[in-house]
Amino acid sequence: MAGFVTIDGVQVPINGQRNLLEMVRETGIDLPTFCYHSELSVYGACRMCVVEDSRGAVLSSCSTPPMDGMSIKTNTPRLFSIRKMMLELLLANHNRDCTTCVKNGHCRLQDLCQRYGVQRVRFPVTMAQQPVDDSTPGIVRDFSKCILCGDCVRVCSEVEGVGAIGFAYRGAQARVTPAYNRDLAEVNCVTCGQCVALCPTGALSVKSETDAVWRALRDPSKKVLVQVAPAVRVAIGEEFGLPPGEITTGKMVSALRKLGFDQAFDTSFTADLTTLEETSEFIDRLLTNKRLPQFTSCCPAWVKCAEQYYPEKLDQLSTCKSPQQMFGALAKRFYAKEEGLQPADVFVVSVMPCTAK
Questions:
Q1: Could you count the other beta carbons within 10 Å of the beta carbon of residue 1?
Q2: Residue extents of the structural domains in the chain
Q3: SS3 of 274, please?
Q4: Which CATH number fits domain 86-206: 3.20.20.60, 3.30.70.20, 3.40.50.800, 3.40.50.2300?
């Protein structure tokens, strides 16, 4: 559709944008959202992205398509008041133990409350304490910190095709939960971690093994090894303010040694071994014309997905461990022998970009 939309007095051409929010962000305006992601369907629940048109109507920019001649404003006093009130309403039904929250300092709700000057909540607290679900090996779910943005529900269903969690009940009783309020370990969650990546608060987080690592590092009887996945050496730099894409291998290994790790290894080593083993296995299958095509077994999330949804294909998965698992096995069996150690005295820490590992 050709034409223009006037945004805060600036004419912006319509050039294939699906909604007003995309146009606003293209102009460099940071319009806040909780529930909008371009890869997911439009939900329009958080109402943070509201704009005001020339007639004074308040519109949800994520769900409003652009039309030629529209004129909108993004930050009027009225809109500021609406957003601030929405934040207060969220906080009234939210566990506000921010100092002990795993997302403290990285929480979207916290960031926006500071941005809009929310210093007190005028509404009574309606949040009831909820039990924390830590039943899976990789994901912790704390409903008392959920803001019902629906990001986790949509990514699990629309991107992963699993649908392990969804909305239940109505009105003030609405919640995000697995079927029949079961724990995540009791349903078809594959621990891929996509829900955690999108969650704007501490409602979903990666299970921390930090305490166990510190105990091992402080135990003089343990030889503590660390293996780091290739993606980490690039991604970790952004966490410390370095430009995206900058390789930090040297800095990272130096930091790991200062923390107390005895030796640092690159998981690429066992990725190469996995490639060799899977290739050998594939050649054998090809020559005998059995169990073809062969599927990789490198990803634990994919293996669990196959177990749940494609059990008839399990015989076609490679029998190899994942590179991360293979390194642990080699360290316990061969490294320990070379160093004259008992396998139980070798403690292997994996630094991975994937929750399932």
A1: 10
A2: 4-75, 86-206, 209-357
A3: helix
A4: 3.30.70.20
Contact by Cβ (8 Å): 119, 113? no
Angle between helix 268-288 and helix 323-330 axes, rounded to 10 deg: 110
């912790």: which residue's tokens? 140
Q: Is the distance from CB of 167 to CB of 67 less than 8 angstroms?
A: no
| Tokens encoding 329 | 């096995």
Kindly report, residue by residue over 290-339, the tens digit of the pLDDT.
999 999 999 899 999 999 889 999 999 999 999 999 999 999 999 999 99
pLDDT of residue 157: 94
pLDDT digits (tens, 9 = 90+) for 103-158: 999 999 999 999 999 998 888 888 777 889 999 999 999 999 999 999 999 999 99
Rounded Cα distance, 49 and 34, in Å: 9
Q: Facing residues of 45 across strands?
A: none
Among 156, 206, 202, smallest CA distance to 352 is for 206
d(CA 330, CA 328): 6
Find how far residue 353's CA is from the centre of its chain: 10
Contact (CB, 8 A) for 178 and 164: yes
For the entire predicted model, the pTM comes to 0.89
- Write out the two tokens for 202: 């501490």
Q: Does the structural domain 209-357 have CATH classification 3.40.50.1780?
A: yes
User: What DSSP line would sit under 9-53, residue for residue?
Assistant: TEEEE-SS-SSHHHHHHHTT-----SS--TTS-----S-TTEEEE
CATH number of 4-75: 3.10.20.740
* Pairwise CA distance, residues 185 & 178, whole Å: 10
CB atoms within 10 A of CB 124: 6
- The encoded tokens of residue 347 equal 């403690």
Q: What are phi and psi of 265, to 5 degrees?
A: -125, 155
Q: How far is CA 83 from the centre of its chain?
A: 25
Which tokens is 135 given? 């039943």
Q: Select from 171, 152, 178 the least CA-distant residue to 34.
A: 152
